[in-house]
Amino acid sequence: MASTGKTLGVTAIVIVGLGLIAGGITWAVLATTRSEAPPPEILPLDWWQHCVLYQIYPRSFKDSDGDGIGDLKGIISELEHFVDAGVDAIWMSPIFESPMVDFGYDISNFYRIHHEYGTMEDFMELLTRSHELGIKVLLDFVPNHASNESEYFIKSEAREPGYEDFFIWADGLEDPNNPNNTLPPSNWVSQFGGSAWEWSTKRQQYYLHQFAIQQADFNFRNQAVRDEMFNIMKYWLDRGADGFRVDALPYLIEADPADHGGRYPDDPLSGRVEFEPHQLGYTIPLYTKDLIELYDVVYEWREFVDKYLEENGGDTRVLFSEGYANVTMTMLYYGTGDVGGARGVRGAHFPFNFDFITDLSARSGARDFAYVVLRWLTYMPHGATPNWVFGNHDNNRMPTRFRERMVDGLNSLSMLLPGVTVTYQGEEIGMKDGYVSWEDTVDVEACNRGDENTYHLYSRDPARTPFHWNSSTNAGFSSANRTWLPVADDYQELNLALQKEAERSHYKVYQALTALKKRQKSLSHGEYSIRALSDSTLCLVRYLRTYDTIVLLFNVADNSDTVDLSRVAQLKLPATVYVSSVHSSRREGDTINGENITLSAGEAIVLRSEPVS
């Protein structure tokens, strides 16, 4: 349970803990004498600390010119959607010039807009219009690598002065079986399968690519590379961007050959016999991921954006970092020491929290949910801001990974937990994965790691299919005869227009939740209590003296469950239903009187009750 550290005006109180029950503690109050306490102090929050952040995948959001590919003008045309939905900030997957091998994550020019998405004028219009509507705009910054078609790589491959060491270059090893052949410098395996090293005939050396062959890894031990990253960030901040989501940070720095006898060391073998040497999982990425030096780079970037704010004024420019890592390594992205205090170093404003993606599924129980939430909040540095991510462009969509009946409960959980709510495009209407055949598959990871029979195990395309605007052709996404990815088959039954018209819908639940998040001080400044009331039902309570108490009851199981509300210490009955999942029999304004309540499979209800004393 979080604490505000404020006095409650209690003159005498004796409390004895009686024991642990279902993840919580039962307390007995033996004696109390209380005087009237003043209302709690409400300190202002920065714009990003309690916002709803929406991820746009530009290729799939809205196509304005009929080429089957989403673009900036398409986003501009639908900016009112974010106002209507209650979104505070948007971040777009990369919109920079790219050969599109990895659909924008292989950037060839960090200073230009990719032609399929539009022009710099379009981007400036997007910024202007978004800011007029009160919406912040974040860009996807991809510092780990650049396209092998970039000017950086072309010059480095040619050994032009100043660019010789812009990327990770290494001589090959002698092939004991063929003296005329060389082998890669180490056994490192790419995230997309195969060796992480590629031979350059022109330079007569190998270069490192931790992702696709066309994505060459920058050398962050070279100060010129670090300086160029500052140049890129400044360029876009000068144009009005509000910050960056920073991609693939765990891979930023690799082992230094100077520490290993002048060569790149082999990663240790995992011992997993189901993998072959060219397959991800054959080795343990000891020398290629989560190296401690990478955090210094992140801290330098935070210092840079903080200094930019001091020199230019305006609202805070933010850095949100991506990093799939264990909880200890992930927390280092926040910085060192207390985030809000004078001690330590500041890092990213927050690292994205992927625990709901990596650690939970349809098989998870209420205790699993409570544990995953509390683990993040427990490890997070004092003064830091948490965030909650349920899906993104790299993973199966939320209703596909969990269950369709859980959509409203999952959205409720992300809105009511303290900190930042992150929504991946389509989650507000409960979009599921679309079907993408082998013939239609374009994801480089699926094509590299799979074949016609196994591609679906690796493909990210199903989570990237076009947004469902309405029931018209191509779900209102595009007028093209063929879209870059096929529209999901269920778009005529599941789309935004229908949900706006319906009496009850996922979208209307989402709107109610964003409205509650914005106006309830219990959610922005209050304390929290989260526990499992049973194997199936999760209970989240947000409370703050003199303000309404907000309670989420969420049955995460696929069967009905009855729980005892008398065990929710901060809940005062009767309570009023604020919002409920679309399949619930309960409606807004209903009164909950009894101590026992039965929730159907996947049902979630948000209750409002009197303030705690």
Spell out the CATH superfamily of one domain. Golgi alpha-mannosidase II
Structural class: alpha/beta
Widest β-sheet, arrangement of strands: 19-16-15-7-4-3-21-20
As residue ranges, the low-confidence spans are: 1-35
* CATH architecture field of one domain: Sandwich
Shape: globular
Strand content: 15-25%
**Any idea what the radius of gyration is?**
26 Å
Question: Could you give the distance between the termini?
Answer: 17 Å
Largest sheet: 8 strands, parallel
Helix content: 10-25%
In total, the number of strands is 29
CATH topology of one domain: Immunoglobulin-like
Q: Return the CATH class of one domain.
A: Mainly Beta
DSSP helix count? 15
Mean pLDDT: 93
Structure in words:
This protein is of the alpha/beta class and 613 residues long. The protein has a domain of 119 residues: Golgi alpha-mannosidase II (Immunoglobulin-like), CATH 2.60.40. The N terminus is likely disordered. α11 runs parallel beside α14. Strands 19-16-15-7-4-3-21-20 form an 8-stranded parallel beta sheet. A 6-stranded antiparallel beta sheet has the order 22-23-24-29-26-27. The longest helix has 20 residues. β15, α6 and β16 form a beta-alpha-beta unit. The protein starts with 9 loop residues before the first strand and ends with a strand.
